[in-house]
Structures are given as structure tokens and as C-alpha cells.
Design brief:
This protein is mostly helical and 337 residues long. The protein has helices at 7-27, 35-63, 67-73, 75-92, 99-124, 130-161, 169-184, 190-236, 243-251, 257-285, 294-318, 328-335.
């Protein structure tokens, strides 16, 4: 294929968003997001692009709207909702630990969406000029990545504050769709839209990275000392003389003795695994990746058994002493590798 073919347009349409994604992965010093998950997000984004194209083709005649009105007010919500499905699954199943992880995974999904969408339009618009593809690459593609990135950030932040709220994704979805809709209003001035995206997105990501690094530092510093102190009390046999021990003694009046015993074992295992997770992360920051061993796998299996044994009420009774900020499920994914 010669230089007059689609290669220059292809590069202009796809390279900017891929470079942005590579930059995010490079700047993430903690490397909590696995490459395999990033690839899965790219694939999920590509599938969501195909699904959105089909939905848009059905909804435009079905709703009886003019295409420009649909592209501005309906398509943004449809596309952001479809893009969000896999990201929300990752957040709901506790595979996202911090804001920066949600940002990277969201941008990867948006990138996959943009890649497939631009490939589709490359076939649909074979005679489009190079300027069109520069705008789609630096503007539309980065917008898709940025909107889903923003959805992930807001949803993760909302989930951390309100872990039981089932509609925690709604604020992020509204913000992402509003950004998408605003960009689509630049239909007759696409260069302005592309410039706006490039001006707003990098500063926003800087704030997210700084906040996420602060949250991670607090989790490591404060949590490590508190967990180690409480674990030492349990292992030394001096737990009964502490405030925690007196609290556990009071539980004997509300729970069966075997449930209280299992609750103490549950607390001990959670603390041990929390310390292991923090140690694994510190090692990863230093360039070492500790493999999962049989002992850790056995502890994880025992913890699952103890969770069933003590029930939801027992887990809630132990929650004040774990200091994991709702991240205990994510820690397990980290320990499983």
C-alpha cells in the first residue's frame, strides 16, 4: 500500500490516543494495572463501539430525530453507557484500587472505542482529507478516552465514599455524557473542540495522579503501622488487655462462642493479608514482582471460609479494626497476582 493509501490517515486517527494511553501507563509509578487487563479494556472498548454503531442506526429513525440533534443530545448518553459497562464491572468486582487505576482503565476502554470507530469511518469516508483525521485523532479519539476516563474517576471516588450505593456510576455517567455532548456541539468548529480537549485533559489527569498518590501513601503509611500493631497484639496473647480485646469480649453476649473465635481468626487473617498486600506493592514500586505462593493462596481460601462462617454481621463487627477503607476485596486481587 503506497503513501497515497490510507496509512497516513490511519496513523493520524489512531496514534494520538494510543500515545496518550502509553503515557498514562508510563506515568503510573505503582503499576497496579496489569497489561492483560489493559488489553481486555481495549477489546471491550472496541466491542462497545460496534454495539453503539448498531444502536445509533436503530435509534435515529426510531426516535424520529434529525441526525445533528441525535449526535448532540442522545448519542453521548448511549455511547458512554455502553462504554461504561465493562469498567463498572471492574469497579463492582473490586479490581480497581485507586483513582489512577480507574483513570487508566477508563481511558483504555475509550481508546478501544475510538480505534474501532475511526477504522469504521476510514472505510466509510475514504476520500476524507488529512485534516479530518488529524481532528478525529487528536480531538474525537482523545475525547472518547477522556470521557470514559472521567467516568471511571468519578465512579471510583463515589464508590469509595458510598460503597453500598448501587447508582454510584450515575454522576460519572452524567459528567462523561455532558462532556461528550459539549464536544459534539463543536461540529462546525472541530478544531476548537480538539484544542479544548487537549487543554483540559492533561491538567485534570495531573490532579488525579496527585490525589491518587496521596491516597496510596496514606494507605501504606498509616495502614501499615496500625495493622502491624493490632496483629502484634493478637499474636502475643495480649489482645484481651486492649480496647479491641474488650470489644471482642462484649461480642460473646451477642454471638455464639465459635463465631467469636472465627471472628478473631478472620481479623488476624485480614491483617496478615493486608500487610502482605502492602509489602507486595512496596516491592513492585522497587521493581520486584513477588510471585504468589501456596501459603498465601491457602490464607485466601481460609478467609473465604471464615467470611461465610461469621456472616455479614460478624464482618461488620470486625470492620472498624481493619482500616482498609473498603479495599480489602481489591487487596485479594493484588495478592492473587
Amino acid at each position: 500500500m503506497n503513501i497515497e493509501g490510507p496509512w497516513p490517515q490511519l496513523i493520524a486517527g489512531l496514534l494520538p490516543v494510543l500515545l496518550c494511553l502509553a503515557g498514562l501507563l508510563y506515568l503510573d509509578s505503582n503499576k497496579l494495572v496489569r497489561p492483560a487487563v489493559v488489553v481486555a479494556c481495549l477489546m471491550a472498548g472496541g466491542l462497545s463501539a460496534g454495539a453503539s454503531l448498531l444502536l445509533n442506526d436503530l435509534l435515529i429513525p426510531g426516535l424520529g430525530l434529525e441526525e445533528i440533534g441525535y449526535r448532540r443530545y442522545v448519542a453521548p448518553f448511549v455511547e458512554e453507557l455502553v462504554k461504561a459497562i465493562f469498567l463498572l464491572h471492574l469497579i463492582r468486582t473490586h479490581r480497581v484500587g485507586f483513582l489512577v487505576d480507574a483513570a487508566i482503565l477508563g481511558f483504555a476502554i475509550g481508546s478501544g472505542f475510538a480505534i474501532v470507530e475511526n477504522l469504521y469511518y476510514l472505510q466509510a469516508w475514504p476520500d476524507a482529507g488529512m485534516a479530518v483525521w488529524v481532528i478525529r485523532g487528536f480531538g474525537t479519539a482523545v475525547m472518547h478516552g477522556g470521557a470514559t476516563c472521567l467516568l471511571g474517576i468519578v465512579t471510583q471516588a463515589t464508590t469509595e465514599r458510598h460503597p453500598t450505593w448501587r447508582l454510584a456510576f450515575l454522576p460519572g455517567l452524567v459528567i462523561a455524557a455532558a462532556l461528550h455532548s459539549l464536544y459534539n456541539h463543536f461540529f462546525f468548529a472541530p478544531v476548537l473542540g480538539a484544542v479544548a480537549i487537549l487543554c483540559v485533559f492533561p491538567p485534570l489527569l495531573r490532579v488525579v495522579f496527585l490525589r491518587s498518590e496521596g491516597s496510596l501513601a496514606r494507605w501504606l503509611d498509616v495502614g501499615f503501622d496500625a495493622d502491624a500493631e493490632l496483629l502484634e497484639l493478637i499474636q502475643s496473647g495480649r489482645l484481651s488487655d486492649s480496647r479491641v480485646g474488650r470489644y471482642l469480649q462484649s461480642l460473646r453476649e451477642k454471638f455464639r462462642h465459635e463465631v467469636v473465635a472465627d471472628s478473631i481468626c478472620y481479623l488476624r487473617l485480614q491483617l496478615e493479608l493486608s500487610l502482605q498486600a502492602k509489602g507486595r506493592l512496596l516491592a513492585r514500586q522497587s521493581g520486584f514482582d513477588i510471585p504468589v505462593d501456596a501459603e498465601t493462596s491457602a490464607k485466601l481460601a481460609e478467609l473465604t471460609y471464615l467470611e461465610r462462617s461469621i456472616g455479614r454481621t460478624g464482618r461488620l463487627a470486625m470492620a472498624p479494626f481493619l482500616r482498609v477503607g473498603g479495599r480489602h476485596a481489591w487487596q485479594r486481587h493484588l495478592l492473587r497476582g
